[in-house]
Amino acid sequence: MSDLKFNLSQKTAVVTGGAQGIGFQIALQYLEAGAKVSIWDYSEQALKTAHSELSRFSHQLHTAQVDVTNRDSVAKAATSLPWAVDILVNNAGITRDKSFVKMQAEDWDSVIATNLTGLFNVTKALLDKFNTQSHNKRIINVSSVVGLYGNFGQTNYAAAKSGVIGMTKTWAKELSRKGWTVNAIAPGFIMTAMTKAMPKEVLDQMVAKVPAARMGEPQDIANACLFLSSEQASYITGTVISVDGGIVL
Ligand SMILES: NC(=O)c1ccc[n+]([C@@H]2O[C@H](COP(=O)([O-])OP(=O)(O)OC[C@H]3O[C@@H](n4cnc5c(N)ncnc54)[C@H](O)[C@@H]3O)[C@@H](O)[C@H]2O)c1
After folding, report:
1. What's the mean per-residue pLDDT of the chain?
2. 13 alpha carbon – ligand 1 mean position (Å)
3. Mean pLDDT of 122-144
4. For residue 177, what are the β-bridge partners?
């Protein structure tokens, strides 16, 4: 349970990649704040698990198996959405890490398709599904600290996550006068299933670089999403909020 108290009881959210990891925590905290949430994810198994873990919120929860890289799949999910949207969190993402010398075209294509084009596909399909009455519409794009500063072995991921920032700023310029705020969050090292599986020495080396002296938790990202979704954040648009324990200092 989050200590932050934002009331989202009149709101509805779509969270892509919401069946696991950071997206799951964002969905959970929105549900706890009273929002209705539609989780879009391509993993059938993860959706089933998420559905059962969130069963106490069944009257607020909707799930859809959606591949954000596939425009037909996205269009179908947008059409079958049971609610008008107030908040969209573009969170689905993958990594295919290799040094540039070893990176194959497929590694590039799949990461760009999911982490950059996926956001275009989903936002394009949902733009006219937003609540037309609302002056507090939200688009939150999950970028990465790597999109700001680059990273060894992540040409594809860094390019996509930098692209997300450019897209965020452009949408903020185009959409803010129409009642949206559009922002990006740039997480640092966050503890998810992927990072938990890393050897302890590697994790210790990573933590040693973080001024806050710990890995981030999915809840740290979800807290930033909650704030950006609240009416108190209505004058924040076109910005990138780093949630990284100060790693780039
Ligand atoms: N974990 C970190 O340290 C970290 C750091 C910076 C940024 N991020 C970003 O945060 C976001 C979430 O990362 P995470 O660590 O929770 O990852 P994760 O792998 O735990 O979860 C990602 C979710 O996205 C879903 N997904 C992937 N491709 C999809 C597609 N084509 N269509 C629909 N769903 C798809 C997966 O099924 C999964 O449920 C990503 O955008 C990631 O790049 C993570």
Report:
1. 96
2. 17
3. 97
4. none
Which residue, judged by its Cα, is nearest atom 36 of ligand 1? Answer: 17
What is the domain range of residue 195? 12-243
Backbone φ, ψ for residue 240 (5° rounding): -120, 120
pLDDT of 165-180, one tens digit each? 999 999 999 999 999 9
**CATH code for position 31:** 3.40.50.720
Residue 3 lies in a domain: no
Report the relative pairing of strands 36-41 and 12-16 from DSSP bridges: parallel
Is 30 catalytic? The answer is no
Structural domain count of the chain: 1
Other CB atoms within 10 Å distance of the CB of residue 197: 8
Give the span between the Cα atoms of 190 and 244, in whole angstroms. 8
* pLDDT digit string, tens, across residues 22-40: 999 999 999 999 999 999 9
- Structural domain contains residue 1: no
